[in-house]
Prior knowledge:
Strand order of the largest sheet: 3-2-1-4-5-6-7
Helix content: 40-55%
Radius of gyration: 17 Å
Largest sheet: 7 strands, parallel
Order of helices and strands: EHEHEHEHEHEHHHE
CATH architecture: 3-Layer(aba) Sandwich
Number of helices: 8
Shape: globular
Distance between the termini: 46 Å
CATH class: Alpha Beta
Strand content: 5-15%
Number of domains: 1
CATH superfamily: NAD(P)-binding Rossmann-like Domain
Amino acid sequence: xxxxxxxxxxxxxxxxxxxxxxxxxxxxxxxxxxxxxxxxxxxxxxxxxxxxxxxxxxxxxxxxxxxxxxxxxxxxxxxxxxxxxxxxxxxxxxxxxxxxxxxxxxxxxxxxxxxxxxxxxxxxxxxxxxxxxxxxxxxxxxxxxxxxxxxxxxxxxxxxxxxxxxxxxxxxxxxxxxxxxxxxxxxxxxxxxxxxxxxxxxxxxxxxxxxxxxxxxxxxxxxxxxxxxxxxxxxxxxxxxxxxxxxxxxxxxxxxxxx
Length: 259
């Protein structure tokens, strides 16, 4: 087996990575990237057929992967995901907390308690519970790294996006707090803050692909990002190359928030 030292592209060799929301978009791209770098990937999402297809693709490329159907708004599902990972591989070295939803984009006065729950259950409660249960395993083994998908919406505001924006601010807050509590115990916690990425989610927010692209063109980059670009950032934050980084929200928005 080629070592990570002799082959830098395999810098996550034999590490065990859970990726939630792995059935599509940034989660799927990240699962593939982590596997390419040698990680054993546990792919978690609600859509079983898409998970099985992803796992088959990883295995066909010579990697190791396991599919575990998971609804991160349900604590029992999360407990079963963590248990299945430990039973199969014996450790949890990486968690990419990616599962989430945009909810309903509408004026704040039109939002309801139901849409609040729809957003906060996966985006905040799910992230919290995944951090709690996977983090406990990491702390017991004395090492691990967590990357939470927080969005550039965790740093700024958008009209009609009050609930989504608030949920992502909460994710950044939990990221910073966990980083303070766990760094000295060997567990790093960071966040990825993507801008507009060419996935299905923006297509549900903007009325058309052209409207989404017009918004993306307001960034310095002048375009939407690609899931594969975000996946490389996740892999970096999960690797030893980021060993002195914790509690950070890495903004990958093509310069939108500085424009």
